[in-house]
Write a structure and sequence with these properties.
It is a single chain. This protein folds into 3 domains: 283 residues, alpha-galactosidase from lactobacil brevis (Beta-galactosidase, Chain A, domain 5); 303 residues, TIM Barrel, CATH 3.20.20; 96 residues, Golgi alpha-mannosidase II (Immunoglobulin-like), CATH 2.60.40.1180. It has 14 helices and 37 strands. The termini are far apart. Bound molecules: alpha-D-galactopyranose. The site of alpha-D-galactopyranose (GLA) has 10 residues, from loops. Alpha-D-galactopyranose binds next to loops.
């Protein structure tokens, strides 16, 4: 048997993790910027040693990826179980290690209890680390209460937590909390889905980390069910972050034949601020998460019927929308809610996935043909996990929903949740979805999920796995089918779903003033390509705010473009602006979706990004508020070569009244030729005085 190494390291191109294995646990002695291969890990460990803090166990426990409460680690145990009906004091000790340059598998065992944990750490090509942990039992049966996916001692520079929170129509807003005081912080979800809280995405930062400078760690739990996270301060002042699936007591029963795979956790490090970190996550999604069938496929312009006609679908209404969409250059026509059963509002028909005869007298097949004859493909809204009490499905199978026998069945949005863990339910759904996709040759499903799971007791974990199985089955049958994950907007967004879908619906709120901060939160972890972004009606039905078509359409270019309004009700001028931006989006989508995204963090109520691919780039600067200064500061670009020269143009149509304040208009039309150093240092002084002004900026390396 080869001797177990005392230390191992895992590297990405820019980061290193060092584990010290000498003490029978896996101490994390370093997590940060990449160390040279010549670095002496033993010396690194010695250098990090400190005198034992007072009031500690006689054998102080090192900061480990598996804190051991049985030997005196003070925090919440990362693994909690009952063995033979009694709480179990687990003492997991490092038993074996296998490591190569990109992967380390650490085996821990408590032979007395008959419990084994495998902790597999991989460095991924995109520059992230992935952690997968699995529990197995050799002896008694057990009830698992918690099994963290990741438990990470935080480096001393970690002083701030940036996490994301929100609510319906206002998702992914970031909040910063100082970690240097206070005992512990925690968060999680309870509704059987990650919810609007956004807490399975965490950023750990040092004091003053910004968009482009400073150290930060990004963490994500690739799991669509309930989760929990904690940051705890030990008695010796060290911080430890823990992230994992939240389990109901009794939900997971373990036996010799039944282990537990914790959902994968992802971890990325950047010393170039949040924008550098976002680039790592984007690359990972593009190259390591999205289904291969969706990669590199141009993302089609959608017209979605929801904010155009709501439930009021009729043959005439839809025919009008098809014509309008085709004339604008739309490529995908999406029938949202209201196409099935007898669904005229949200009170009925979920589960009855047949087209409404009054709207589709000849079925969906001929309708899809009509859509295709106008140069578009067809997409459909479905909410497969739900059932309306007023539906044929419910009348036939009242026991198929999650319920407590004999108890009242509480609804939300007048609907109940189907129990996907029952084979007959999953089979029925698969059959119906398969038939729909086949009959109408659907190109896309908008897969919605509009209420949390209740009654949930002990069901949410299995329900999440059953959802994955259903999606996997459907994808295997229809590999070219695009699927969007939506849960009343961004109520269920994560990499586990993204590995089965092609995009997310970040929010029901299409008002760009609200969508921009939501997009900013999403773009920390998701590339532009997967963020659906639609031009909504005016005024916006959720906020009541009126925003010009110029602003709505320009902002929507940054994402996966769509229209969610009735172009037939727009003025000719607005339709022309919309058409121009659809054309612009098509011209630039390869850059937007395959390029590297740089945050331009414009400030003073402004948002900005630059997508750069090959020799071309497109930037957006969007001013939402009236700036504090007379004009917002010049837009300083990022990621360019200071020595290279760039042609810089402002594509038309230009926003009014801002355009009237733009000097040298002829040059902005024909293009300036400027050195990278000017763009990186002086910036572009665009008129941004008026709130709701957005500019797109084209760049080409000459
Ligand atoms: C949810 C979605 C919306 C829309 C409606 C339809 O709220 O988030 O985009 O599809 O359902 O009922």
């Amino acid at each position: 048997m080869p001797k177990r190494p005392d230390r191992i390291r895992l590297d990405t191109a820019a980061a290193t993790l060092v584990f010290d294995l000498a003490q029978g646990c896996a101490a994390l002695t370093y997590a940060g910027a990449r160390l040279p291969l010549t670095c002496d890990l033993a010396d690194l460990g010695r250098l990090g040693e400190r005198a034992v803090a007072p009031n500690q166990p006689d054998q102080p426990q090192p900061a480990s990826i598996l804190p051991n409460p049985t030997r005196g680690n003070a925090g919440t145990p990362p693994i909690l179980m009952w063995l033979e009906n009694r709480p179990c004091a687990l003492d997991l000790q490092l038993a074996a290690v296998q490591a190569d340059v990109s992967e380390a598998t650490l085996e821990f065992a408590d032979e007395l209890a008959g419990v084994h944990l495998q902790s597999r750490w991989r460095s991924l090509p995109a520059g992230l680390f992935e952690v997968r942990q699995s529990l197995t039992l050799t002896g008694h049966e057990a009830i698992l209460l918690a099994c963290a996916s990741l438990s990470l001692p935080l480096p001393a520079w970690a002083t701030h937590l940036r996490h994301f929170s929100g609510r319906w129509a206002r998702e992914m807003r970031s909040t910063v909390t100082c970690l240097t005081q206070g005992p512990s912080l925690s968060g999680g979800s309870q509704g059987g889905r990650s919810g609007f809280g956004g807490g399975q995405w965490l950023l750990i930062e040092e004091q003053d980390t910004g968009e482009h400078h400073g150290r930060c760690l990004g963490l994500h739990l690739a799991w669509s069910g309930d989760y929990e996270w904690r940051i705890e301060r030990a008695d010796d002042s060290r911080l430890q972050v823990t992230l994992g699936a939240r389990l109901d007591p009794g939900e997971i029963r373990l036996g010799t034949d039944r282990g537990f795979d914790a959902p994968p956790a992802l971890l990325a490090f950047s010393s170039a601020g949040r924008s550098g970190l976002a680039q790592l996550f984007h690359r990972h999604v593009q190259e390591g998460v999205l289904p291969t069938s969706t990669r590199g496929k141009p993302r089609k312009v959608h017209l979605n019927t929801w904010e155009a006609c709501g439930f009021g679908q009729s043959p005439e209404r839809l025919e009008g929308l098809i014509e309008e969409a085709a004339s604008l250059g739309v490529e995908r026509f999406v029938l949202d809610d209201g196409w099935f059963g007898s669904r005229e509002d949200d009170r009925s028909s979920l589960g009855d996935w047949q087209p409404r005869p009054d709207v589709f007298p000849h079925g969906l097949g001929p309708f899809a043909e009509r859509v295709r004859s106008r140069g578009m493909d067809l997409g459909l809204w479905v909410e497969p996990e739900m059932v309306s009490p007023d539906s044929d499905l419910y009348r036939l199978h009242p026991d198929w929903c999650l319920h407590v026998p004999g108890a009242e069945r509480a609804t939300q949005r007048h609907q109940l949740v189907l129990d996907l863990t029952r084979a007959e339910v999953a089979d029925d759904l698969f059959r119906k979805l398969d038939q729909l996709v086949s009959e109408a040759d659907l190109a896309y499903l908008k897969w919605d999920h509009n209420r949390p799971l209740f009654p949930r007791a002990g069901r949410a974990h299995a329900q999440t796995l059953a959802l994955y199985a259903l999606l996997d089955r459907l994808r295997a049958r229809h590999p070219a089918l695009d699927i969007e994950t939506c849960a009343s907007g961004g109520g269920r967004v994560d990499y586990a779903l993204l590995s089965r879908c092609h995009r997310v619906w970040p929010s029901d709120n299409n008002d760009p003033i609200e969508r921009l901060p939501t997009l900013q939160g999403c773009l920390q972890f998701l590339p532009l390509a997967v963020c659906g972004h639609h031009v909504g009606p005016d005024p916006n039905p959720i906020t009541g705010r009126s925003v010009s078509m110029h602003f709505r359409s320009r902002v929507a270019v940054f994402g996966h473009y769509g229209i969610e309004a009735d172009p037939g009700t727009m003025t000719a001028a607005d339709r022309a602006v919309l058409a121009a931006h659809i054309a612009l989006y098509k011209h630039w989508r390869d850059v937007l979706h395959a390029g590297t995204l740089h945050s331009l963090g414009a400030g003073q109520g402004g948002y900005g990004w630059l997508a750069w691919h090959g020799t071309r780039g497109l930037a957006l600067v969007a001013q939402t508020e009236y700036p504090q200064d007379h004009d917002a500061p010049p837009l300083v670009l990022r990621g360019l070569d200071p020595e290279a020269r760039y042609r810089v143009k402002l594509p038309e149509p230009w926003p009014e009244p801002a355009a009237s304040r733009l000097p040298h208009q002829a040059r902005w039309r024909s293009g300036w030729e400027l050195p990278g150093s000017v763009l990186l240092n002086a910036g572009l002084p665009l008129p941004l005085t008026h709130p709701h002004t957005a500019w797109l900026i084209e760049l080409e390396r000459t």
